[in-house]
Amino acid sequence: MNSKFTRIIIILLCFVFFTVSTSGQTKSEGNVKTDSAKVKTKGFMARMQDFAKKSARESIEDFKSDKVAMVQLEVINQIRLTTQDAKGYLKTITDTLALKRKLKKLREDYLIAAEGVLINRGTTQTYRNLASTKRVLNALTLDAKRSKSSLDITQKELASFHYRIDSLSTAPELFVFPKDSAQTMDYVRTLAAVAIDAAPVDSLLKSTNSKVQKLLYNYNIIISEFQNAVEQVEGFERQMANETVARELPNIWQKQLHFRPFKDIVSFSLTKNMLTLKFYAVNNAGKLCLIIFLALCSYIYLNALRAIYVEKGLLTKEMNGQLAIRYPALSAVLIVLSLFQFLLLSPPFTLRFIIWIISCLCLTIVFKNFNTPYWMKVWLLMVVFFVFASAGNLLLQASRPERWYMLTLSLIGAVAGIIILRQKRNVELREKWIAYSILFMVCVEGLSIILNIYGRFNLAKTLFLVGFQNVIIAILFLWVVRLINEGLLLAFEVYTVQDRKLFYVNFGKVGGKAPSLLYALLVLGWVLLLGHNFPLFEFLSKPVTEFMSAKRTLGNYSFSINGILLFFIVMTISVILSKIVSFFTSDDHLISSKGTNENSRGLGSWVLLLRISILSIGLFLAVAAAGIPMERITIIIGALGVGIGFGLQTLVNNLVSGLIIAFEKPVNVGDIVDIDGQGGTMKSIGFRSSVISTWDGGDLVMPNGDLLNSHLMNWTLSGNRKRLSMEIGIAYDTDLQKCREIIYQILEDEDRVLKNPKPAVNFELFGDNAIALKIQLWTRHLKDNNPTRNDLIIAIKDAFDQNGIKIPFSQHEVYLHQAANPKSLDREK
């Protein structure tokens, strides 16, 4: 038992004992003993007070000791837990050796990037070399900053663990020892165990923190070097942009300046180009994966379109107007690479060259045997020119052999272009604008020849590439527009039901020619791709991009024009995709292609959910891209709540009903339904309303709330079966058993009549003119009811005629009674 509680009990027992002993004295003792009792009482009370004070002091000391013991226990537990956490964290932190190796690799890559610009500059700078160096340096800076950020976090965590262990180890309560020697020894042993466990961890934290600090110092230095190098390269680019037409080299016939060996130029150019491509691919892996995914989706669509044409026998051997589905995979790659290469912001020339070469190969195979042999040779010649010009553009430093190489190829290209134009075979061209691009090539290559001769190397090299590149891009884009137009035309020839409510393109107005908007976008893309080759392009476009991306404030809300445009672009794409999904899943060919609507039902049942998902994801991405704060969204939702309370109940009811229909699926697209006596087929299920194609040919638009609350008869849920009943009257003199056998035989021979459940032939009643016979049967499909009824009536009538069974018609016998002559009646009276 606790000592302080023992002392309290002793005091109470003594007080009780003294009270009993004094009260037991008899009154006969009188006043003689009174004084002695008082003396005893005073002495006892004094001793009791001393004892109480001593007990109080001892109790306070015990309380303090217990409090200190509790704090000690808590601190020791915290030290153990922190030590364990620190051990676990030390196992997970980034290996400093790996970071050292990465730092070494960054320096090696920096030397490769600086080659020819900051190191071994050579006679003159080239724009391609500056651009490649800048891209690599930016990538290296970004990579180094990522590692530095990781080291910053590691250092903070290490310092945090070290601080927590030190602060706990210096707690004053740890140095208060119990008075009991045995407890002191136990406590000292506990402290020793904790110290033995924590000391190595604390030392490891200090050493690791020291290593991390050294690495951070080195990373800060190298990041500073990279940033300074980028500033130097940008200074060179500004100087080159300001001196676009300045002379860099002597005239080509004059004595040339000193150049590096051509072999060294090729070697370091190849190394730097591969390094640039690697860093760009790593930093833009998401966009590249997106392009691959879009190409796969395009292939699936075009391949499905081709399968429909093959199934319906619409595919022609000449493939005129059907090139888009001739090779679905190649067409998909060509279209996606040509259109979505603009997702890649400022890609290196090596990547653009790979994209264009792949596109050229795809286009060559797609229109092989479609173009005339002459223009096919012209196309292949332009591809060869482009490949050789691009190979020259991959060289990152100027050299005398390159100048003669450019001069020779430009001269051959210009002469070839002139010969092609003088042939005047433009009538054979599928796209007339190709002739204009060849004329542009002749002019640009001629200007490149002049500039090259008179020492304007960088501008001559840029024009040398642009001349051939413009022809390739123009032809690729023109054919991409043609293939897109063909793909849409082919789709709308198969998907014949164009619903303005879902998605509509008036091809009767557009015709076989692509819309002008596509050609306008083609010209814009052509200008952008060619403009990237000029040093001035970046500096002219930089103010525009800064203006578009600048943050602006309106009250408490900050925004940028890029964010607003991106919001509307993403939402527009989401809405268009949603409508396209509804359009292509609501067409009749999904039913007629297989003779059943099971495929359309399986697809159509998820259409609304798919549309909701597309719009929800689109809204989320649009909000995230625009940088709209979430608290603004809550304000909008609150405003919508007020609107719902005042006047949007019906709209919300229909929207919620649409969700219920999507999840519960009482009805799907393609189902045969009866709603309040109105029969038809479900054509689409939208957000607010659904469309039912009635048997009369009209489209019934019904709000989802009314659809959900109506008495809905869904024949498709029961397997598209409906019982067919027929009533026949036969004459009274008919052999009834023979009649039943004849009818059963007819039903047995009819393939559209189900054998299970078996058809029933029953005699119902004796009618006025005939015995009523009722036939009940099930057909394989609801749509077979009327044709089956028609054929059965014909078959039964023929069989009855052959077997002499009469089907009496309704008749009434009228008996006429002649009235008596009134005159004769009077004579009788």
Automatic annotation (TrEMBL):
Residues 1-23 form the signal peptide. GO terms for cellular component: plasma membrane. The chain crosses the membrane at residues 279-302, 323-343, 349-367, 379-398, 404-421, 433-454, 460-481, 517-537, 557-585, 606-627, 633-656. It is a multi-pass membrane protein. It comes from the Bacteria. It is found in: Cell membrane. The keyword Signal applies. Its main location: membrane. Keywords: Cell membrane, Membrane, Signal, Transmembrane, Transmembrane helix. Residues 725-807 form the Mechanosensitive ion channel MscS C-terminal domain. It comes from Pedobacter agri. The keyword Ion transport does not apply. This is Mechanosensitive ion channel. One of its GO terms (molecular function) is mechanosensitive monoatomic ion channel activity. Residues 650-716 form the Mechanosensitive ion channel MscS domain. Belongs to the MscS (TC 1.A.23) family.
